[in-house]
Design brief:
With 217 residues, the chain is of the alpha/beta class. It has a single domain, classed as Rossmann fold (3-Layer(aba) Sandwich), CATH 3.40.50. Helices cover 46% and strands 14% of the residues. It has eight helices and six strands. A six-stranded parallel β-sheet has the order 3-2-4-1-5-6, with helices on both faces. Bound molecules: adenosine-5'-triphosphate (ATP) and magnesium ion. The site of adenosine-5'-triphosphate has 20 residues, from helix 1 and helix 7. The site of adenosine-5'-triphosphate (ATP) has 20 residues, from helix 1 and helix 7.
């Protein structure tokens, strides 16, 4: 299964979501094989994985860097791995479009902020085009870095309605804005291997929902 994490908005949380999903799969499906593909020239995930793979306390994850028209390479990887997770960069890149042409699922992180929600319409266009050639691709979006104050709940609800209107199928679970996402990055960790229970519980609930949706039908 090829799962691409994509958004044309920088800083939406693609790399964090992709890395944490990899660790979730490692923890919950140890019998399955997994490859991370960093398709972002910024190399966020490749550098993170290098640190992780040097850390003897954590199980390693294989990772390759790829750019340009990557669809053929992704299909080849999918023959050898149960899960191929692709982290794309924060731009409407050839690599992102190429990955969307062959992905089984796309996960689109989006912050509940006005500028991110404006940019979501361009992403929706890109997804609509990708679906013409890859109609079986499951499309999911997730709200990231949401405010934790209950008084700000309306921001989350209105962001979800924009994602709904753009037919990007927002997941019920979200990630809140918690320092643990930033702090756990050290030494190749994720929130799933860190002390903040709230962040860990939110991530686990999110990925449980992702797997449930992907395994449907
Ligand atoms: N739920 C969260 N709460 C707080 N901080 C977060 C959360 N998710 C991600 N971050 C932080 O936000 C920053 C941007 O996240 P990340 O690098 O994952 O985004 P990105 O979409 O991959 O960015 P780019 O477009 O540059 O590739 C990082 O510092 C990360 O630690
Ligand atoms: Mg990134």
């Amino acid at each position: 299964m090829i799962i691409t994490v994509a958004s044309i908005k920088g800083g939406a949380g693609k790399s964090s979501i992709c890395q944490t999903l990899a660790v979730y799969l490692l923890q919950n499906f140890p019998e399955k094989s997994l490859l991370l593909v960093d398709a972002d020239p910024q190399k966020t995930t490749a550098e993170w994985i290098q640190e992780r793979n040097e850390n003897e306390d954590l199980p390693g994850i294989p990772c390759v860097e790829q750019s340009g028209k990557i669809h053929g390479a992704l299909q080849e990887h999918a023959k050898n791995y149960d899960f191929v997770l692709v982290d794309t960069g924060g731009a409407d890149s050839t690599a992102m479009r190429s990955a969307l042409a062959v992905s089984n699922a796309v996960l689109i992180p989006c912050r509940p902020k006005k500028r991110d929600l404006k940019a979501i319409w361009q992403m929706a266009d890109t997804i609509e085009t990708a679906l013409l050639n890859n109609p079986k691709m499951k499309v999911l979006s997730v709200i990231t870095q949401a405010p934790t104050l209950p008084s700000q709940g309306n921001r989350i609800a209105s962001a979800k309605s924009v994602l709904d209107a753009a037919e990007l199928n927002p997941l019920r679970h979200i990630t809140c804005n918690r320092n643990a996402w930033d702090d756990s990055d050290e030494n190749g960790c994720t929130v799933l291997e860190y002390e903040d229970k709230k962040a860990k519980d939110e991530a686990n609930a999110l990925y449980e929902e992702v797997m449930e949706v992907l395994n449907r039908d």
